[in-house]
Amino acid sequence: MKSINLLISGLVLSALISCKPTSNYDLDNFLLHGTEENPYQIVKESQTLKIFVPRGSQNPHFNEMKMFKKLSEITNLNFNFTEVDSSAYTQVRSATWEDKKNLPDLFLFNNSTSEQVYYGAFGALVPFNDDEVKLANGYKIGNVIDNFMPTYKGLLDNNFNINNGLNAKKVATFADGKMYSTLSVNDVPRDLTFKMFINQQWIDNLQEDGVQIKDAVDIETIEDYIEVLKAFKKYDANRNGKDDEVPVTAKELEYLRNYILASYGYAFPGIELSGDEIIYVPKTEAYKKYLQTMRLLETEGLLDISTFSIKTDAQMAQKGLEHRLGSFSSAAAYLTVGMNYESEYVCITPLKSSYYTGTPMQWGFSTFYPTGAVIPSGTNYIREVARLLDIMYSDLGIQLIAYGEENVDWQWDNEEKTSWTFNVPNDWKGTQEEYRATITPNVGTASALYWKNDFVGKMNDAILTKLNTMSSIYTPYIKVVFPEEVKMTNDEYNEIELINASLQAYQLNAEYQFIKEGKNTNGEDWTKYLSNLDKYNVGRLEEIYQNAYNRFKGV
Amino acid sequence: MKIILKKKKEKSYSTGKGLILFLIPTVVYLLIFHYLPMSGLVIAFEDYNSYQGIFGSPLAKNYGFANFINFFNMPNFWLIIKNTLVISVYSIVVNTILPIILALFINEIRNKHFKKTVQTISYAPYFVSTVVCVGMIFAFSNYEHGIFNTIAKFFGGKPSNMLESDTWFSTIYVVSGLWQGLGWWAIIYVGALANANMELHEAAVLDGANRLQRIWHINLPTIIPMAIIMFILSVGNILSVGFEKVFLMQTSGNLGASEILSTYTYRVSLMSRIPQYSYATAIGLFNSVVSMVMLIAVNKIAKKVGDTSLW
Amino acid sequence: MVNIYKKDKIFDWVVIIIMGVFSVVLLLPLLHVLASSFSSPEAVNLGKVGLFPVNFSLVSYQKVFANKLIMRGYLNTIIYTVIGTIIQLILQFTAAYALSRKDLKYKRFWNVFFVIPMFIGGGMIPTYLVVKSLGMINTIWAMIIPGCVSLFNIIIIRTYMTSMIPYELQEAAMIDGASNFRIFIQIVVPLSKPIIAVMTLYAIVGYWNAYFNSLLYLTDDSLFPLQRVLQTMLIANDSGQIGGGVGNVESELLAETLKYATIIVSTAPILLLYPFFQRFFEKGLMVGGLKG
After folding, report:
1. Which of A71, A135, A259, A279, CA to CA, is 20 to 30 A from A503?
2. Do residue B184 and residue B223 come from a single domain?
3. How many CB atoms lie within 10 A of CB A64?
4. Given an 8 Å threshold on Cβ–Cβ distance, is C248 in contact with A334?
């Protein structure tokens, strides 16, 4: 045992020695307003910022990406990236915090809310909106947003020009009134929710044959929808002479679940805010209706018999490529049915039902998350980082992280700037996305501080434009099931994690048994299911959310 | 005779002392990469956060035992333990016995080329990654095209999505594991059999023993000590069924049989948005304690019955 | 020498038939993997591929070898495997030898010392911190040193040495005044050839397939082992639409065949190694040892 002690102290000692004292920081090297020739310049003499980033499987090295080269060129800053593979990200991030002497100057992207709640309380993070912010050397710089981030401040004040009821400032602010992270903002419709496709060509075929069913655009209730699915099953909708139509499929019920459930008044089979009340949806009557409908789809043979065994998009595409799918949910139809049949599919809007006649709703993401960028205390470079971030929220930064530099990687198609074209070099052998990965980290990951529809949506690309148009029919109905504005305490976050870890497995299994094995939704099975949910602490789960929500409302 | 023995003892005692030199490199490695990180186990008794660090985080509630209490009180505790044990015991029994039988068979093949071929084929599946292996399981049990269902239909059975059933789960897991690992696990016994004493075989032939008798009385005893050690070690790992394959094989239909200790831990640590390090470590520690208890018990039995011991 | 196989023709045939059937059963899924890797992604995805390629296509292999990092990955993996295997064998065999000796001092303590870490681990973060404080992050040592000793293997080797190598041989040498080192090199090592072959194979395969440590400890592409390069490629093709842009169904389908191709690409070299090791499993070594 003595040898172990010796070893520990040896290691600690070597760790101490290896920590160099912080180099002298020159306060006057920072340029608040840039220079006359270059408003973007941040430092006089070149300085290096240490930045911690998640690296996706498609990303090349960050310092090889065009956007960071450009940023480095115009700001006179150098970047020293610590790139952590996304699959080991949380572990390495925790280990990084253990070694407080070597913290980065900036954690860019992927900052968790719970970490901010907890670490903010220790003073480990720089509050962006606090008037008393000081550098590590004690020099007072005051309010970071007010003093160094005019662009971001403007955006916050105008709620990023997004009027969907979500309040950007409240999302960014924690219970102690401080903002520990800048926002990550996304208002591009195609990224905010799923799409439900149905084959209009099949409907046309059947109508031609005299079958009375509604067109896709006229489908408004779950009953209409089921009628169409039934017709797909009953007749030879794809006109190949075989009884091989699969009316509706989904990858482990993904999104189909949300879509059907929404027609009964809830968007998500878990915790959901309804009015001012928190409800665990799977215990409600509406959920029971959902199960009964799914059971009907199952017994009538409308639901793909393999739904619960489909684990990948490619497996779902199997039947799509064979022209056998009537309806499904996917990011884009061609991802499931290929280019040959893509044009036959159209989107259907969220549904109502005889049970629920209120406004239709669609499960979706929030436009704001407090996850963008975090500055750990203990750095002298707060002002430099703040200026850099501010540039990343400006038009220049938004463009760089999306598709690169104007007139180099893309250019406007016209004077009015209503659309622009992305330049992929002719000799580029890979896909467009692979090329984009040489420019920005926003490929295969959601790494962007501001993914802005006003720019991204103007891309001159037939496919993307079509996706945006299709997605925009859902935009008015999007429901964020629990507002990002509400923050919990660390204990609450942890308790929720533990309850969910057990509960979700049970609930998924129960759902399967009601749908596939015909457990009875009216009777003993249902009563037992409800009492089991109680055992799995559903009551406590609701209570935690409700308390947090009430606290938030009270403020 | 006595004198020689005594002399021998003295001699071997003095050389035995120098043996420590052989141990030192590995011991240093173990101290640095295994024993030193074990100090991290203290977080099982804490509410760990990386800012305050491994040794600075606050003690968990209930005198540090809150994580354990939460674990034992979780509603599906017994289900998870049961599922883990079913898969584990099933695997241990099958994986202990079959590689021995395979090795004995391979040892009896007299055509060199055939022997090489059998061995190469039998160990090749080991290199198929878990992802692909599970992918093939899903493909083979596909409702429409899957080979299993084709066979089932041929024999008049009903097709089904096999991976959606609790009943089939452990069997599919163990059998696919055998496909991958059987040849690989047998290698060690094949290696040991290569050293089976030829003189004993020759003597046995002269005594009129047939092949089966010689396999039973000479070859089998040769590999039994190794097999017992393997068995003891696998019993020590009784709760440590790896998560990756089970996790990939999970569907909402089979969760009643497929949610095991490691997949649960994965859910609350690696896969979680808010990783519960302290909690996951507490589960790991619980697993270690069970392992040690099982190990000591089985080792005791093995020592009594088979005269083989880990220590 | 007595022919110990005489008069057992029927027995031989039974063995051949059982082993033949067994091999075929194991082989079929492997053929499926091979066939899939040479088929068009559509055919694979539609479940049309059985034991022979359908719509023969090299697209997956082209994709694999178009990756700039593949050759570098091969080279790195070979380096890690060679160095790692040597270190692992030395550590495991020296330790196992000492543990196998009846006259090791504090033998019981050492045995327990070697068993404990098999069942009690400190977890990922503490191990990461140790590796980091040793300055191994982003060096080849991060792929070689952590995990370079398998305690399981040490115990297997120890068991082999105690049960297969007659202790009298060592005792005799001791009486002759041979040093421990000499006994180890001249008696124990030659008599351990089969287990050395097994352990070498285990070590090579272990290093060849090592992947997870690279996620934690390596961020520099030029150090990535082959498996990391391949995995990265698989994940990259698997993601239909996350983040800003949009994927396509081709790459989604390709992801499936790629899985099969990567298996072939990564295991072909190592499968070719096996026949080389096999000769160490041949009979007669022990007899030679005893008589020599």
Report:
1. A259
2. yes
3. 11
4. yes
The identity of residue B305, as a single letter, is V
Beta carbons of B161 and A508 less than 8 Å apart: no
For position C281, what pLDDT does the model report?
Answer: 67
Domain boundary among A412, A438, A469: A469
The reply to whether B162 and B277 lie within a common domain is yes
Domain of B214: which CATH number?
1.10.3720.10
Same domain, A538 and A435: no
Of the candidates A3, A493, A506, which has its C-beta nearest B274's C-beta?
Answer: A493
Which of A341, A351, A327, A305 is closest to A228 using CA atoms?
A327
Q: How far is A18 from chain B (nearest CA, A)?
A: 18
Is A355 within 8 Å of chain B by CB? no
Does residue A4 register a pLDDT over 70?
Answer: no
Asked if residue A238 and residue A149 are part of one domain, the reply reads no
Q: For residue A218, give its domain range.
A: 195-363+488-554
In which band, very low, low, confident or very high, does the pLDDT at C288 lie, cut at 50, 70 and 90?
Answer: very low
The answer to whether residues B29 and B147 belong to one domain is no
Q: What is the pTM of this model?
A: 0.88
Which residues constitute the domain of residue B26?
Answer: 17-59
| Mutation site, A3, A12, A85, interface C, largest C CB count within 10 A | A85
The residue of C21, C163, C287 whose CB has the most chain B CBs within 10 angstroms, and thus the best one to mutate to test that interface, is C163
Span B248-306, pLDDT tens digits? 899 999 999 999 999 999 888 877 878 888 999 999 999 999 999 999 999 898 888 87
Cα C190 from Cα C196, distance rounded (Å): 9
Q: How far apart are CA C281 and CA C288, in angstroms?
A: 14
Domain count, chain B: 2
The DSSP code sequence of C118-152 is: HH----HHHHHHHHHHTT-TTSTHHHHSTT---HH
Q: Same domain, yes or no, for A359 and A381?
A: no
Q: Which of C242, C254, C257, C259 to probe the A interface (max A CBs under 10 A)?
A: C242
Is there a contact between B226 and C156 (Cβ–Cβ < 8 Å)?
A: yes
Q: How confident is the model at residue C7 (pLDDT cuts 50, 70, 90)?
A: low
* Whole-angstrom distance, CA of residue A396 vs CA of residue B255: 49
Q: Which candidate, C283, C285, C101, places its Cα nearest to that of C190?
A: C285
Above 70 in pLDDT, residue A159? yes
Indicate whether B161 belongs to any domain. yes
CB contact burial B4-31 (16+ within 10 A = b; e otherwise): eeeeeeebbeebbeebeebbeebbebbb
